[in-house]
Design a protein that fits this description.
Length: about 170
């Protein structure tokens, strides 16, 4: 077995990076391993020389130094920040939208049933006489002919059962 004596031959543990001139702190040497800062991670096992810590992606945050992974925003929340260091960067999806995914970005927030709009954008209630029974950006569907929406004064119909037959019609 050959022993390694050069800095390039040794790797850093996950959550640590190889120090460079720009990342040196007091009493540190180029080539030594140093911990990833908050909001950064390095996941490789025994990282090769030169592998540096990366910013946490949007939808994630890193609250601890020397992290090998970032934490996900919980379902129903999103974040557009990269390199985030606090869970407070994860905020609720816009009104009348939601996401069931963890680690979401704004574009993962989709309109709830009864509302339409672009993912990550404003969601508006389905107009009277229409309904939408699935989440997402699909358009509201017009109630079948010879029927009207049960709630004639406001939108938000979320199912085809919200449509009733017009007087004189059955079905």
């Amino acid at each position: 077995m050959t022993l390694s004596t050069g800095a390039r031959a040794c790797g850093c543990d996950p959550g640590w990076e190889r120090l460079t001139q720009s990342s040196l702190g007091a009493a540190q040497k180029i080539g030594a391993c140093g911990p990833c800062a908050q909001g950064k991670y390095q996941w490789g096992l025994r990282a090769d020389y030169g592998l540096q810590c990366s910013d946490c992606e949007a939808g994630k945050y890193g609250i601890a130094a020397s992290a090998s992974a970032c934490q996900d925003c919980q379902a129903g929340k999103h974040s557009k920040a990269t390199g985030a260091t606090a869970v407070s960067t994860c905020v609720d999806c816009p009104s009348h939208s939601n996401t069931s995914q963890i680690g979401s970005t704004l574009s993962n927030c989709s309109c709830q049933p009864g509302y339409t709009g672009t993912n990550g954008g404003n969601c508006t209630a389905c107009p009277v006489g229409t309904y939408k029974d699935t989440p997402g950006s699909a358009e509201c569907i017009v109630c079948p002919s010879c029927s009207v929406a049960l709630n004639r004064t406001a939108g938000c119909s979320s199912a085809s059962t919200a449509c009733e037959c017009s007087p004189g019609y059955t079905g």
